[in-house]
Write a structure and sequence with these properties.
This protein is mainly α. It folds into 2 domains: 161 residues, no CATH class; 174 residues, no CATH class. It contains 10 helices and no strands.
C-alpha cells in the first residue's frame, strides 16, 4: 500500500512541477516577474492588494513599483503552486524514510529534493529582491527543471515504468553513452535558452532567420553577452545589454539548437533502428517528434516576434524534451 502511495505522490508532484514550470515561464514572459516587489507575500499581503486603501498603502510602501494587479496575481498564483509542490515533496521524503528498510525504496533522492526545493524558494526570493538578475533567473529555471527531472526519475524508477526487457541489455550497452550525452546536450541547450530569455535576447535578431540582421555572422560581443555576474545594484527588468551582446547570446543558442538536433536526432535514429525493442523504437519516434516541434517553436518565436503563447509553448516543450530524454536514459539502463 505504502509504496504505490509513494509512486502516486511522485507522479502527482511531477505533474504539479510541470504546471509550476509553465506558470513560471508565463510569469516571466509576460513581464510579471516583479509583479510583487516583496517575498513571500505581495505588498505585505498573502494575496494581492484589492481595496483602494490597500492599494494606496502598497503604493506608498513601494513607490518604485506601483500595484499592477494583473501582474501581481500571475506572480502569486505561481507562488501558490510552488508552495504546494514543496509540501508534496516533503510528504514524499517522509514516506521514503518510513519505508527505508523495504527493498528498492528510493530514499536519498526524495530527501535531496526537499533541499533542492528549499533552495528553489531562496532563488525565487532572490529573483525578486535582486530585480531579475539574469544568473539568478537562469538558476531558478534550472532548479525547477532539475526538480522536474528528479521527480520523474523517482516516478519511473520506483514504479518500474518504461523498462526495457533484460533480453535487450547487450543491445542497449552501446546506446547508454549516447543517451547520457543527449541528456547533457539538452541540459546545456536549456541553460542557453534560459540565458537568452533572462537577458531579453530572444528578439535580438528581430524577425530574421536563419540569418541575423541579414548576415550569417553578424557583429557580436561574446565577452559582454556572457558575463555571469553584474552585481546587485542594477534593475535587470527588460535587460541591460546592448544589441551586439544580445545577438551573441541568441546566436550561441541557435548553434546549440543545431548541436541538439544532431545529437538527439542521432539518439532517435539509433533507437528506431533497434530490432525487437518496440518500446524503445516508440521512444525514438517520440523524442524525434518532440525535438522537431521544439525547433519549430524556436524558429517561430523569431519569425513571429515572440508571441506569448508560442514562447510559453517553447518552454513547455523544452521541459517535455528533457523528460523524454530522462526516460530514455532510464530505459537503456535497466534496474537490476
Amino acid at each position: 500500500m505504502s509504496r504505490p502511495l509513494f509512486v502516486k505522490l511522485a507522479m502527482f508532484a511531477t505533474a504539479l512541477t510541470v504546471v509550476v514550470v509553465i506558470l513560471g515561464a508565463y510569469t516571466r514572459l509576460s513581464d510579471a516577474g516583479l509583479g510583487c516587489p516583496d517575498w513571500p507575500g505581495c505588498y505585505g499581503h498573502l494575496d494581492v492588494p484589492k481595496t483602494h486603501s490597500e492599494i494606496s498603502t502598497a503604493n506608498e510602501a513601494y513607490p518604485h513599483r506601483p500595484v499592477e494587479a494583473h501582474k501581481a496575481w500571475k506572480e502569486m498564483i505561481h507562488r501558490y503552486f510552488a508552495g504546494t509542490l514543496g509540501f508534496v515533496i516533503l510528504a514524499m521524503a517522509i514516506i521514503a524514510l518510513r519505508n527505508r528498510k523495504e527493498s528498492n525504496q528510493i530514499v536519498a533522492l526524495p530527501i535531496a529534493l526537499v533541499g533542492i526545493v528549499i533552495f528553489q524558494g531562496l532563488l525565487g526570493m532572490w529573483t525578486v529582491t535582486e530585480e531579475l538578475n539574469p544568473t539568478i533567473v537562469m538558476a531558478h529555471l534550472m532548479g525547477g527543471l532539475t526538480t522536474l527531472s528528479l521527480l520523474w526519475w523517482c516516478s519511473i524508477r520506483q514504479g518500474r515504468l518504461f523498462m526495457a526487457k533484460t533480453m535487450y541489455e547487450s543491445t542497449l550497452k552501446p546506446i547508454q553513452g549516447l543517451a547520457l550525452l543527449a541528456l547533457l546536450v539538452v541540459i546545456v541547450q536549456i541553460m542557453l535558452g534560459g540565458w537568452t530569455s533572462a537577458n531579453y535576447a530572444a528578439l535580438a535578431c528581430l524577425d530574421d532567420f536563419p540569418t541575423c540582421h541579414g548576415d550569417w555572422w553578424p557583429p557580436m560581443d561574446f565577452k559582454e553577452g556572457f558575463v555571469l555576474w553584474r552585481g546587485t545594484e542594477l534593475n535587470f527588468e527588460f535587460g541591460v545589454l546592448y544589441n551586439d551582446a544580445r545577438v551573441a547570446i541568441q546566436m550561441v543558442h541557435r548553434i546549440g539548437a543545431v548541436v541538439t538536433l544532431l545529437i538527439v536526432g542521432l539518439l532517435a535514429w539509433r533507437l528506431l533502428m533497434l530490432q525487437g525493442a518496440r518500446n524503445l523504437r516508440t521512444m525514438g519516434l517520440v523524442v524525434f517528434f518532440v525535438l522537431i516541434l521544439q525547433i519549430a517553436l524556436g524558429i517561430s518565436n523569431v519569425l513571429l516576434q515572440l508571441p506569448l503563447s508560442i514562447a510559453v509553448a517553447h518552454n513547455a516543450i523544452g521541459a517535455l524534451l528533457l523528460l523524454v530524454v530522462v526516460t530514455i536514459n532510464h530505459a537503456v539502463n535497466p534496474q537490476k
